[in-house]
Amino acid sequence: MPVPAPLPSPDALARARLLVAPSLDGGLVRELERITGREAEPLEDVPPPSDGPLLCVGETLPDALRTSRLLWFHSVNAGTDSLFAGGPWPVPALLTRTVGRMGERMAQYVLAWMLAECQSVPEFTARHARAHWERLPSELVAGQTALIYGTGRIGAAVGRLLGACGVRTVGVARTTRSGPAPGSVRVVPGFDRVIGAAEDAGVLAEARWVISTLPLTGATEGFFGAARFAAVRGATFVNVGRGPTVDMGALETALRDGRVRRAVLDVLPEEPAAPGDPVWKLPRTVITSHSSGITTDEDVSVDFSACWEAVTAGRRPELTVDAVRGY
């Protein structure tokens, strides 16, 4: 069982220098200075002089700061895979992340595309371009099943909004061990039912929508491959998690043989996609350029403030990232 990183001691936190990414807006930097009660310095690939502890806020961690001097890093993003891709995480530095209202934004994004599909918006748009009048039937989302991979803050936000529209929501937890026993039900806010990943084949076959909010870890890379897509029976696939969790070749095969009805991809394995990238040619697919849950300065300041309040009170922040699991 991994041991969580210890919380920064009050003395170390009081002495820590605040380093912020140059990309952060001036107003946000001033708010971070207000919260911490100290002036900010640039987060660069050159450590500041002295051997004092460091408190960093940004998107990436320079190699020169992957040392025992790092006391705490707060990511301005929800996904932290890029931080782990840069090298081993310096133990025992605390890592927290920003979620803010991203779950709400992603939930609305998912629901918008579901409703657009049920109301034949793509088909009506195409007919309008041809000045062609034709009545098309609509479909109700209520009573349909959405299989949502990822039962954390973002997945639960998606589940809550869909549930309010009458959609039956089934969450998929990380592993069979951390999920329920096969065939059992676990009450989790946002979901009518939660299953382990090893028990998803049956629900994949009955789901109308398959929605991924998964982070990128060693366990989720290529998670949606040929085997999972083979179990799908006409569902629409929506990915608002991470692009490399999907085997794009397997998805293309499933789209072409009709097992996947449509795909809405907000994330891709390689971003940004160049104009000549084959992903633009996938049948019945829409790509939306990683825009479903753009983080705002308010998200960063509110979440960092909550983490600061918890740490200074001796509590582990709810937004702590497990460096072993990767989320």
Total beta strand runs: 12
Order of helices and strands: HEHEEEHEHHEHEEHEHEHEEH
Distance between the termini: 16 Å
The side-by-side strand order for the widest beta sheet comes to 8-7-6-9-10-11-12
Shape: elongated
Q: Structural class, from helix and strand content?
A: alpha/beta
Which range does the strand content fall in?
15-25%
Runs in which pLDDT lies below 50 for 5 or more consecutive residues are none
Work out the helix count.
10
Q: Using the CA coordinates, give the radius of gyration.
A: 22 Å
The residue fraction in helices comes out at 25-40%
Outline the biggest β-sheet.
Answer: 7 strands, parallel
- Report the mean per-residue pLDDT as an integer: 93
Model description:
The strands form two sheets. Strands 8-7-6-9-10-11-12 form a seven-stranded parallel beta sheet. The protein has a five-stranded parallel beta sheet with strand order 2-1-3-4-5. The protein is elongated and about 70 Å long. The protein is built from ten helices and twelve strands. The protein is α/β, with parallel strands linked by helices and 327 residues long. The chain starts with 9 loop residues before the first helix and ends in a 15-residue tail after the last helix. 30% of the residues lie in helices and 17% in strands. Helix 4 packs across helix 6. Strand 10, helix 9 and strand 11 form a beta-alpha-beta unit.
